[in-house]
Write a structure and sequence with these properties.
CATH superfamily of one domain: START domain
Radius of gyration: 15 Å
Distance between the termini: 41 Å
Order of helices and strands: EHHEEEEEEH
Strand content: 35-45%
CATH architecture of one domain: 2-Layer Sandwich
CATH topology of one domain: Alpha-D-Glucose-1,6-Bisphosphate, Chain A, domain 4
Number of strands: 7
CATH class of one domain: Alpha Beta
């Protein structure tokens, strides 16, 4: 199929710390995404399978909503989630593993565009790839700057 997006980064912080950063999207997403206007998390309490985050971002100068829902969580090992981004329904997984004193974070996803957007799959994949590479690098910068 070839619509898989993959990106990996090594962050020089312990696994637990990196994992918790990704788990608490409601607190940390704005630090990573400068275009983010707001995040609403439901339900309240610790994030787990079924936790949903509703994001409002500026996209081409106007607000756009997207939703991310955690589907499975293995503490300090992986976070599986699905999202709704307009006509795209990505299914993704973040894995965390020790890399020396740091953490190797790997993101992989299927972009799953719906309807006529399937034709744009290669374009969507490239954009998603760039977005996630940038996002992981920003997380690395944030976490390594604030021990």
């Amino acid at each position: 199929m070839g619509s898989k997006i993959e990106s990996t980064v090594v962050i020089e912080r312990p696994v637990e710390e990196v994992f918790v950063f990704f788990l608490n999207l409601d607190e940390n997403a704005a630090r990573v995404d400068p275009e983010l206007l707001s995040v609403v998390k439901t339900p309240d309490g610790p994030a787990g399978p079924g936790t949903t985050f509703r994001f409002r971002q500026k996209m081409f100068g106007r607000p756009r909503e997207s939703t991310t829902r955690f589907t499975a969580i293995e503490p300090n090992r992986e976070i599986q989630f699905e999202a709704v981004l307009g006509p795209i329904r990505p299914i993704a997984i973040l894995t965390f593993e020790p890399a020396g004193a740091g953490t190797r974070v790997k993101f992989s996803a299927e972009s799953n565009p719906v309807g006529p957007f399937k034709l744009l799959s290669p374009l969507i994949k490239r954009k998603g790839q760039r977005e996630w590479e940038g996002r992981l690098m920003r997380v690395k910068t944030i976490l390594e700057a604030n021990p």
